[in-house]
Amino acid sequence: MQALAAENNLAETAFLVPEGNDYRLRWFTPVVEVPLCGHATLASAAVVMERLEPGRTQVVFHTASGPLTVNKADAGYTMNFPARPSQPSRLRLDWLRRLARFHSKFSSIPSTIWLSWTAPKYCELLLRIWPQSRASTDPA
């Protein structure tokens, strides 16, 4: 699957396999498997409900992030994303601030880091960036 995703060279490539009345779904970038991809999930649901099983109004995908249910609506599809609690962390804050100072795309330094485990082996890192004027007064 990884080799096919690399050959496709798209942001994500979705692979779905029937599993009982549901489907197993995995997503790959050209270089790594990812735990969640909303657009590819909705596109997969459209393939299932429009092409593979016309008339079907709901599909459940079993994924690395848990089961994802997509429902057909009047104007498209709806899906509830899994809620993952996040919490502030001081994990490597100084290191990230140093990195941000040298990286040309950052005009400010991170003031808070939030970590959220999206699946057993995946962690999302969210940075709160203050504008330059506030970063200098940030007490952290």
Structural notes for this entry:
The structure is a single chain. This protein has 140 residues and is of the alpha+beta class. It has 2 domains: 2-79, Diaminopimelate Epimerase, Chain A, domain 1 (Roll), CATH 3.10.310.10; 87-135, no CATH class. Helices cover 26% and strands 39% of the residues. It contains 4 helices and 9 strands, in the order αβββαββββαββα. The longest helix is centred in the N-terminal third of the chain and has 15 residues, at 38-52.
Topology:
Layout (H helix, E strand, L loop, with lengths): L1 H7 L4 E7 L2 E7 L4 E2 L3 H15 L5 E6 L2 E8 L2 E4 L7 E3 L3 H10 L7 E10 L2 E8 L2 H4 L5
Parallel strand pairs: 2-4
Antiparallel strand pairs: 1-2, 2-3, 4-5, 5-6, 7-8, 8-9
Tell me briefly what this model is:
The protein is α+β, with helices and mostly antiparallel strands and 140 residues long. 26% of the residues lie in helices and 39% in strands.
Keywords:
single chain, 140 residues, alpha+beta, Diaminopimelate Epimerase, Chain A, domain 1, six-stranded mixed β-sheet, three-stranded antiparallel β-sheet, 9 strands, globular, disordered C terminus
CATH architecture of the largest domain: Roll
H/E topology pattern: HEEEHEEEEHEEH
Distance between the termini: 43 Å
CATH superfamily caption of the largest domain: Diaminopimelate Epimerase, Chain A, domain 1
Which structural class fits the helix and strand makeup? alpha+beta
Radius of gyration: 19 Å
Count of DSSP strands? 9
Average per-residue pLDDT, rounded, comes to 77
- The shape, in one word, is globular
Number of domains: 2
Give unreliable regions as ranges. 132-140
Q: What portion of the residues fall into strands of 2 or more residues?
A: 35-45%
Q: Helix share of residues?
A: 25-40%
Q: How is the CATH topology of the largest domain named?
A: Diaminopimelate Epimerase, Chain A, domain 1
Count of helix runs: 4
The biggest sheet amounts to:
6 strands, mixed
CATH class of the largest domain: Alpha Beta
